[in-house]
Amino acid sequence: LCWEPEPLPSGAPIARMLGNIIMHEPVLDLGSGANSSIATSLEDALDRGGLGEACRWVFGRGAGLTPSGDDVAAGLLMADALLGLSDEATRLAIVADAPTHAISRAFLVWAARGQSIEPMHRLLAACALEDLNAARSAREDLAAIGHTSGLDLAYGALIGFRRAADAAAATRPARLMTSRALAQITA
User: What residues contact residue 77 under an 8 Å CB cut-off, 6+ apart?
Assistant: First the structure.
């Protein structure tokens, strides 16, 4: 027997909850000339060239075994996959061009398929269900992963879900997440 959850509203509730609990901005080594927030810069990159441009802008930036920028890109890719905004082949092509190492690339490939570490799935499920206590608990578990990897991943997802929710609200009625996407979040 395979659990098939009911579809939930698109990324809007997830983006809203993530925005309330992710009080973190990745350090991406943008240099002293950076005068805008990372979120603004990512949104500008998304406007210019979509998901691929945004990922290329952050790939390899920052410190860590998986650089902070790769973690942010993984969050963006995962949000895109779970909302079904682009196809898997497009996301995998973006990852194939990433100037990164094998460990980080493997993490990015899984994210491009909508899969990630367990606390991230718990966080997204809690946000989708608007369960603040469960979301805070999952956030704390993410904060314990790497120096900032878990929170950088959640930040990328926040930008991805927020961007999708804003676009959906501006252009069409709310999309429904597929039961498969919800199952991936809650698996």
Answer: 51, 55, 91, 94, 95, 108, 111, 112, 156, 160
Q: Does the pLDDT of residue 6 top 50, yes or no?
A: no
DSSP letter, residue 1: -
Instruction: Please give the structure tokens belonging to residue 55.
Output: 């990922």
10 Å CB burial of residue 178 (0-12, 13-18, 19+) is: middle
Instruction: Reply yes or no on whether the pLDDT at 7 is more than 50.
Output: no
What confidence tier does 36 reach under pLDDT thresholds 50, 70, 90? low
Rounded (5°) CA angle 33-18-140: 95
Which residues lie below 8 Å from residue 130, measured CB to CB, with a gap of 6+?
13, 17
**Residue the block writes with tokens 């920028």:** 69
